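Lab meeting, item 3. Inverse folding demo.
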C-alpha cells in the first residue's frame, strides 16, 4: 500500500497499548520520497523528533529522540506498520525500543487525526487539489 505521510498528523489511539502518559501527544509527519521525518509533543513529552524511511508497503522504520516533561532525554527505534481504517484514516501499529537508562520495549497504536475538510485526502492517500 503506497502511502504519502507528508502533512499527516497522528495521536495515540484510544485502545492503544502504549503508556497512558502518551495520551494527548500529537505528531506531524513529513515525507519526501522514502525519507520520513517528524516532530511531536504533548502527553509527557516536551518535544520530540523522528527520522527514518518509508518502505514501499508504507511501513515506517525510524529513530526518535525526545525530552520528557521531567527533563530526561529518551532515544530509541520504532517500526510502524500501517492499516487503512474504514473511514480512510491510517492506523499505525508500533513496535518500539528505547535505549540507555530508560531502556524498554513495547507496542503502541497511533491513529491519524482527521484533516480539516479543505485538506482532506482521497482514498489511497492522494491530496485533493484545489481547482
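The presenter then showed the designed sequence:
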Amino acid at each position: 500500500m503506497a502511502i504519502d505521510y507528508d502533512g499527516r498528523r497522528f495521536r495515540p489511539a484510544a485502545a492503544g497499548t502504549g503508556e497512558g502518559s502518551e495520551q494527548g501527544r500529537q505528531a506531524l509527519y513529513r515525507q519526501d520520497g522514502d525519507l520520513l521525518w517528524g516532530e511531536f509533543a504533548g502527553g509527557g513529552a516536551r518535544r520530540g523528533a523522528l527520522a527514518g524511511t518509508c518502505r514501499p508497503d508504507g511501513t515506517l522504520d525510524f529513530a526518535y529522540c525526545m525530552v520528557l516533561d521531567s527533563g530526561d532525554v529518551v532515544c530509541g527505534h520504532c517500526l510502524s506498520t500501517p492499516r487503512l481504517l474504514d473511514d480512510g484514516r491510517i492506523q499505525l501499529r508500533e513496535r518500539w525500543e528505547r535505549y540507555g537508562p530508560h531502556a524498554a520495549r513495547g507496542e503502541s497504536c497511533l491513529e491519524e487525526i482527521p484533516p480539516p475538510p479543505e485538506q482532506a485526502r482521497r482514498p489511497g492517500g492522494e491530496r485533493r487539489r484545489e481547482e
